[in-house]
């Protein structure tokens, strides 16, 4: 068992991560997974969790926490009338389907594959967000029709579930490419997070059930110690992020999102060395 000082350090680290994740959930419409996954990776390493299951545990635990965080963020944005409910209704099957497939992949894929996917996806999107003319990029003046729209929802659910995020990272990019404002994308992404996190959580519990390398108080790839520490903090902080999102311009929101993603990507690339 780690010394008391290390346990206290871990608790403080998780508490700070919870504050940051909750604020970002409201600010960017993300579930906070892009913050929690790298923090959990270091925390579980300190706790001696086997590297073969560490990343899977990070992803599963992050997605469990995203459930209440996304619900809280979605509620805050919905009250302000900025959520695209029509899109969410069209994705009610596509996004959860992708999330379920991601849980099946996690059950069998090596942890290094998940780490690489996390680093590459966040790098590409971060660069796109920071490119000066990226805000003017358009694939169309309105969202695509089915079956293309269904396929995009499925892909967002799949990729987000694989790297333990609530879908905001990908959905924000998708919606802005189709002429939607960053604010509306952020608000709608909170709802997408709900569609991803619930089926992903169930899938990761089943996929990791009974694995011998998991730490104490884990059910499948979900660690309940981390969940119990983070959820109350994120629920309190998420509305502050949503309030901040409505107080800044689209450009500031986009640039901040890009810097955040590049920082997280760099941290994961460094972990390979």
Automatic annotation (TrEMBL):
Heme listed as a keyword: no
Q: Record's superkingdom?
A: Bacteria
User: Sorted alphabetically, which Pfam families does this protein's record hold?
Assistant: TauE (PF01925)
- What is the designated name of this protein? Probable membrane transporter protein
Q: How does it sit in the membrane?
A: Multi-pass membrane protein
Transmembrane parts of this sequence: 12-41, 53-71, 91-108, 114-131, 152-170, 182-209, 221-240, 252-270
Q: Does the keyword Translocase apply?
A: no
